[in-house]
Amino acid sequence: MTEPAPAGPAQYDAERMRAMAAELTAHGLTTHLTDSRAGLDLTATLSPSGQHGAEFWIDEEGYAELRYWYRPGTPPAQVTATALRALRAVTGIAPDSLPSPG
After folding, report:
1. Residue 100 belongs to a domain
2. Is residue 6 part of a domain?
3. DSSP state of 98
4. Is 27 within the bounds of a domain?
């Protein structure tokens, strides 16, 4: 009797990636689906008029990134507050559950 092999990482296929692109486009983001030798990835950009955009990127294995731009000179407290809100949103961790500084 052999042990079952562990399942590989779940992957998004082209149909699911196109569905995500359609949903993001419906919410006003500009999307681009890339199918290359390295695999599938989706980039979605929100670019309000006259401002630097925010970008969301996800690949077929579920690795995702969120990037946004701050004007140089933005107070550190504003930058860190935004970062903490984003981390709480994607992890589902309540604000009082994040480690305290120091």
Report:
1. no
2. no
3. S
4. yes
Rounded to whole angstroms, the Cα distance separating 102 from 45 reads: 35
Three-class DSSP category at 97? helix
CA–CA distance, 14 with 46 (Å, rounded to integer):
22
Single-letter residue type at 52: H
Q: What is the mean pLDDT of residues 35-56?
A: 86
Full domain range(s) for residue 26: 14-93
Residues 6 or more apart whose Cβ sits within 8 Å of residue 41: 33, 34, 57, 58, 59, 60
Starting from the edge strand earliest in sequence, which strands make up the sheet with 54-59, in order? 30-36, 39-46, 54-59, 64-67
Please count the structural domains in the chain.
1
pLDDT per position as a tens digit, 65-75: 999 888 899 99
d(CA 12, CA 40): 8
Q: What's the pLDDT tens digit per position in 1-40?
A: 556 555 555 678 889 999 999 999 999 999 999 988 888 9
Residue 98 lies in a domain: no
